[in-house]
Amino acid sequence: MTAESNPLVVSPDGARVLWGDLQIHSGLSDGTGTPEDLYRYARDVAALDIAAITDHDHWGMLPLATHAELWQQLRGAAARFHEPGRFVTLLGYEWTNWIHGHRHVLYFEDDGDVLSAIDPRFDEPSELWQALSGRRAMTIAHHTAGEPVATNWNIAPDPALESVVEIVSVHGSSEARDAPWIVPAARDGHFVRDALDRGYRLGFIGSGDGHDGHPGLAHLGAQTGGLGAILSEELTREAVYDALRARRVYATSGPRIVLRVSLGGRRIGALLAAPSASEELVVWVAAPERLLAIDVVRSGQIVASVPGHGRRELYFRRELHELQPGEYVYVRAVQEDGAFAIASPFFLE
Ligand SMILES: [Zn+2]
Ligand SMILES: [Zn+2]
User: Fold this and answer.
1) Distance (Å, rounded) from C-alpha 299 to C-alpha 100?
2) Domains and CATH numbers, the chain
3) Quick one: which ligand is closest to 210's CA?
4) How does pLDDT run across 5-51, given as a tens digit for each residue?
């Protein structure tokens, strides 16, 4: 018998790629299995480094927001499975707002509150952010372009609490019209690229948003899933928080594609203050399946598409000219089977 692993990178320095699923539903709301089942599966079967169970605040047989014992159960499981250096868990829940869009809330501390989207005190994004301000917490908008509900981008994400967006999950991709596998009933103006065009600075992660008990491998039971690739030297809550805040992350639709991108020597997600008129983009991809193309997106447009020629590894450099303040640049790598990885943008100031 022979078997083949995912691409593996061995280098003497540089950040590790940590794999995380930061949106998982258990049987405590509308998913499957106990929190313990899911953390064990995430750690021992899917070989994830980071997992967050984010059940709905008011969507289940017993609403989380009004059943403190369920929230205690989630807190207990997150605390028991949290093992810095081996497996990081995050306490969280889904703020299931049917007007402004869904966001999941993650706490990078042992404790947190369920601030429900149907509680009049927290039913507006600004009220949620106000209640979370000063905490080591994060909100992440998801399935922003369409079903089950699109995100209202008229409300600007709070820069201190919302540094990344979930661009892909089992619901599909919310990147842009030209992306593979876009979410059903996608609405123009609600894609992630539309949010970037408004000037919002958001990094990209994927999460499963799986309800079938397979965190980290949600794509095996659906056309697409989602994973967050978090670039960090350490596997601790603090390091994961710092990487997400710095947008040092990329998304995949499930497969563990290795994607390395730099612009002018800066890491993904970086803010380039006073960029030179031209900067060099360097891209390296190692994928488990054959590559179709690597696309370079600059301020709303695909400006280059480098063919994959059926290879699984690709490297190229390209000079980007006449860069202007306010622009953004990102790279996505698409496999022949449609699965993809997409790196957080570089933002020019
Ligand atoms: Zn949702
Ligand atoms: Zn969800």
Assistant:
1) 25
2) 16-256 (3.20.20.140), 263-348 (2.60.40.10)
3) 2
4) 999 888 887 779 999 999 999 999 999 999 999 999 999 999 999 99
